[in-house]
Design a protein that fits this description.
Immunoglobulin-like; alpha+beta; 556 residues
Amino acid sequence: MRISNTTNGLKVQAIAGNYVVMLGIDLSKQKCNGLLGFSIHRSDGDKDAFYLKAMKAFTETDPGFPSGSLYSTEHHPIQSFQWADYSAKPGATYTYTITALKGEPDNLTNYAETKVVVTTESTASDKHEVYFNRGIAASQEYVRRFGNLAPDKVPNNKAFEWLSRGLYEALESFIRSCVPGVHKLRIAAYEFHCEELLELIKSTIDTGVDIKIIYDYRQDKGPKHKNREIVDKYGLEDHCIERSEGKSYISHNKFIVKLEGDSPVSVWTGGTNFSKSGIYGHSNVAHVFKDTYVANEFFEYWKILSQNVSRTKTRDEVGVINTLPVTPLSNGMKCVFSPRPNDSNSLALYEELSLAATNGLFMTFAFGINDLFKKVFENSNGDLRFALLDKKTRGMKAADRVIEEKKIDLLRFKPENIFAIGDLIHVTNKFDGWVKERLTGLNGHVRYIHNKFMLIDPLSSDPIIVTGSANFSDASTFKNDENMVIIKGNTQIADIYLGEYMRLFSHHSFRESLKWRKPTDPPKPLKDNNADEKWWEDYFGNTPRSSKREYFSRIH
């Protein structure tokens, strides 16, 4: 849901997903003189009302809370034109009151006030269910809740519940909804060794539900041996097909087709591996398509994979059942499967779509940036281009890595490009009030950003979302077993994905910025009117912050 309101020159646009409400704020530069920031009050009818909290305070009125504490924006306003509420619940209605505050830190005065009323999206609709896991175990909130304990050391599974954020519970519900003699499940998996999931699948089979599984068994350095070990442990070998042909590649899918009788009715897909690391560790999304066209496409693809033939044979058969859409795209959904024939390049399609972005481009990169997309971030017409990376590079020799990192840094210097790279707070100082963070320990290869999706003009009336299992790479197009779905014209899904993208981006962008500070650097409290540089100055002009202010505060 999107809604905008302006009062006394203070404009606010709210963009509501299911667990995130983004707030884009705008006030003319002429009215910013003396501006100390914005307070944000949230009301849930008669149930709950409070000011949102943030992590900075004025020096003059700092109450001296312990490290890791939060401060009410009533007295310590946010000094940003873009903020978000990450404590929202799906299907809830909230009233946000944003107040521009001037005066002095110990005597704040209201300059302008704007209210917006929004209703968040449900996690489930007639056509879609979207679930993002928390994906940020290395966070101040994790430390506040669970201290420095690893997730498996926290009693009553509470850390895993928080990290799942409903994703595993939705997967469990998807499987448990099957009625023996009515439903069947057809699974394609890369990592297939989450024991609680395999136990659930085993018990579901025991009730009489027909379940068949294809799992990756290609590369020794991949999950093949762990997959077989867990499959054998739960006695599922008679229900499984090992995808072993084409050992130079991987069977990278993570989807489940649900059938009623012999008719496909829905698909669980996305970038979430069926493993503890996938569900609870790095960031991931699962997307349920309750659409017979999409379900049938995935089922036909599953049947090709179940033959366990060579990459060449698989590629040829995929080319028969799955052609790329032509541009301009029509509204609706289109599946894209891999490996693709050499004359059917989905990467070239994604490049064409992203180059045509007019307002905003948002991409995730778990394994570095493909050369095609370096050109996109160099040449796209989009006013604002975001890239969220797990690391700058992957799998390179030291000399090549230096060259590649320089290329990425050159792209970052362009004012239209805003990059963030996964990180956590390693070092703290006694002034800033951050607490040291830890990772779950569940992930090694990809620690932070495992998502594979792109958003093209997501705040327009005609957004494009590309989401699935495939990294935006040559291997994912021509070599691996992969799936993607292109969704065009669905603003509800675009709002959900954009909110989650910005949640992850803001989290890692802030942590990356801390790497450039030393423990002995002076603190960075909220700026008062005596500061040499006003906090709002670089939100105007040709700067990334100015572009963000304009983008998130207007309807496109």
